[in-house]
Amino acid sequence: MNGPALSIQTLDKVYANGLKALDQVTLEVRRGEIFALLGPNGAGKTTLIGAVCGIVQPSGGRIEVFGHDNIREYRKARSHIGLVPQELTTGMFETVWNTVSFSRGLFGKPANPLYIEQLLKNLALWEKKDTQLRMLSGGMKRRVLIAKALSHEPDLLFLDEPTAGVDVELRKSMWAQVRRLREMGVTVILTTHYIEEAEEMADRIGVINKGRLIVTEDKKTLMHKLGRKELLLDLYKPLEALPPSLAGLGLRIAEGGMRLVFTYDPAQENNGVVSLLDRLREEGVKCKDFNTRESSLEDIFVQLVGDS
Fold first, then answer.
1. Most buried of 92, 96, 128, 183, CB within 10 angstroms?
2. 21: how many CB neighbours lie within 10 A of its CB?
3. pLDDT value of residue 217
4. Residues 67 and 3: beta-carbon distance below 8 Å
């Protein structure tokens, strides 16, 4: 079977109160990739997931999951999808084993104890298989959500804010688990407002704002296209103000006058670095050290959302 894992064409969602939550969203997610959907709160991330999973009724457009129309062939399309919501929504007095096994049955899958056992082992839940959910830590509960979503062996997994409210150590553990899922052949789509999460994990990134998908790009390409570098020049003596000859070059003073910061585009051949150093020498401004610093994905995100 060829084609993308997910294909979305000109998707709209307008609520009864007139709010346009999705505006002509078109997106293809490749098989076997980790795709991060970034956006501020209220941007449309969860609405988009809801539309794909059949929870939200779109106002227009078309969605296909592994070639199946998610309205005309809902059961086939939905059988390919696993969804990990933000909140735990299951019985607190059930055991881990029963919770995950029951979820598999909901999709009409025959019992497969060996698969459930391996799934729980992969998610470091095997030793907790007979523990009631109410006795688990927050991190363990979140792993149970992933196990539930994978119980019916889906090919496409949605993670809606998977590490919201968890500590940094657990977040890194979750990242490692998501990579293992991809190695198992699962296509992963995650929504997040943690920029470092997308930067660490994703192959491709989409940025959504006010219901519009404003960019979809390979992570490295996005950072190359929109990224900027800063040249950090540490001075021997503090500089109170820029000499007139250095004004208009995009320089700024930092660190109490002990540092000059110059922003430039590394992709441009004549990026101004050489002429800047010549000007500094002419002005007698001496540098004791210099370093470069690249834009982070957060810088790029702020730039994109600000422009949209």
1. 96
2. 22
3. 86
4. yes
